[in-house]
Known about the structure:
Blueprint: H1 6-15, E1 42-44, E2 68-74, H2 77-80, E3 83-89, E4 95-101, E5 109-110, E6 118-124, H3 125-133, E7 148-153, E8 156-158, H4 159-170, E9 174-178, E10 185-188, H5 190-200, H6 215-219, E11 228-229
Antiparallel strand pairs: 1-8, 2-3, 2-7, 3-4, 4-6, 5-9, 7-11, 9-10
Helix pairs in contact: 4-5
Amino acid sequence: xxxxxxxxxxxxxxxxxxxxxxxxxxxxxxxxxxxxxxxxxxxxxxxxxxxxxxxxxxxxxxxxxxxxxxxxxxxxxxxxxxxxxxxxxxxxxxxxxxxxxxxxxxxxxxxxxxxxxxxxxxxxxxxxxxxxxxxxxxxxxxxxxxxxxxxxxxxxxxxxxxxxxxxxxxxxxxxxxxxxxxxxxxxxxxxxxxxxxxxxxxxxxxxxxxxxxxxxxxxxxxxxxxxxxxxxx
Length: 233
């Protein structure tokens, strides 16, 4: 996510104390997707880690267990308020789906159906890290690469719901500020997209992310998740 200067986030900071979470938008049929979706659905795994859903990594490998999720971070994005993207494991496989809402136009508002730089892809865990570290699907030239990622295992997962949410957030447009249709002070930004997708996946230990929340602040609340530096690969 990138937004047009600190003025937009100044409004956000003032509003934080008064804002509570709301639905991002109604499901829409628009949004890019990639072929070859599996039939993996809602699963409750018995392979939880000894520490509950806390991330368990084999060295620097993917989270243990049948399900898992990652958050990718650009700490310097959006005027240093941060930008985030998501990844989740297709249950019981070594394949992941991942993506983001990049907002390359830097506009505080883009109506539903407009270009918001939304994308998603599918690949192995290592491929996901490589693509995110290089901004492989960023629409244009990226000025702030993903340089950090946090992951967790999850004994619950719902791939179908997560995919539906991806289509929803890709068609929602982008907003930080006052919704011109409702007059509500709210957001539909990179953090909202990331949280909504991972919530739909039923990720364990996913900290709530109220609308208009600051990405870099939210990332620090994922205290049970792994935390690692991401370098181009």
